[in-house]
Amino acid sequence: MKFLGALSLLVASASAFSPAAFTPRSSSSSSSALKQAAFTDAEKQVILDKVAKIFEDTPSQEFTPYVGNIEATFPGALDNLSLENKVVSILAEKGFTADNTLLATSLCCDELARRLEDDFVKIYGNNFNLGGLSGFPFAGNTGFGAMAAHIPDDGSCLIIYGPHVGISKSGEVGKVERVGIELVDNCCGSAIAASNYLKGITDGGAVIKTAIQQFTDFQQGAVQELILPHGKRLSDAGDDRMKELPYALYDSQDMLMQDIVKGGAAGGKKNGFAVLGGIQINTAPDTLDYFHPLRFDLVNTDGEVIEDLLPKLSE
Ligand SMILES: [Zn+2]
Q1: Could you tell me the distance, in angstroms and rounded to a whole number, from the CA of residue 32 to the centre of ligand 1?
Q2: In this model, does residue 7 exceed pLDDT 80?
Q3: Domain residue ranges in the chain
C-alpha cells in the first residue's frame, strides 16, 4: 500500500532528526537541549497526524483517468500526495517541524492554486502569501522581509512558488474542469491572457498597452511585461504553446524569487529557508493535482544554497 510506505518513510525520517528521543538524557543536559528533545518528540507525532489527515481528505488516485496523460505530458511531475509526503519527510530531517516552520507561498490567485497550499497549511499552519496573478511574487522584497520577521525563533521557512496550468480530462493542456461550471475553460487565465497579448506582438498587429501604469489592473500589466522575453520561445513551441507557457513563466518567476530570497535571506532564522519551485498542474475536481518540481534548495541566511534537495524528490 503506497500510503503506508510513505508513512513509514516519514516515521523513519522523523526519527532520524530526533536522536535525543532514543538516548538517555543526563541530568546535566542544558535546558535548551532538553527543550529541543521534548519539542522534536512532540512534533514528530504532530506531523504524522497532519499528513494522515490529508490522506483522508484526498481523492483516490487509483480512479483517476489522468495518470497516463499527465505523466506523458509533464515528465517529472509528482501527484500532490507523493510530493507532500516527500517534502515533509525530507524537511523533517533538516529540522523543519510543524511548529517551527513558517509556510510562504507565491502561487496564482486562482482558487485551484489553493489546493496544494491548503495541504501544506494543514501541515505547517497559516501561510504568508507572497504571490499574485500567474504566481508572480508581487509582495516583493518588502513582503519577503515582513514574512521573514514572522519565522519562529530558531525556526524554519518553507517557500513554495510557481505558475499553474490546467489539464482537462480529455488531455487538453491549458483548460480544466471546475466545480459547478459546465464550460471547461482556461487555466491559468492570467497566463493565457498574457500569452495572447504576447502572441499579438510577435505575430504583429497588436496595440501595445501600458496597463502596468493602471492600478486597476496592475498585476496583469506586470505579468504581460514579464512574459515579453519569452516571445520567440513560445512562438517556436507551436502547437505546444500552452505546455511551454508555464515553463516560460516559471523561468521569470524563478529569477525574481532567487533575487528576492537572496536579498532577504539575512532575515531568516536557524534552519534558513527551503525553497521549492515548480509548476502546479491542476486537474478536474475529483482527481489529484500534480506538481512538477524544478527547484528544491536549502538556503542559509547568507542566501547561499547549502544543499540541492531536488534529486531527493525523484528517489
Ligand atoms: Zn492562474
Answers
A1: 45
A2: no
A3: 2-313
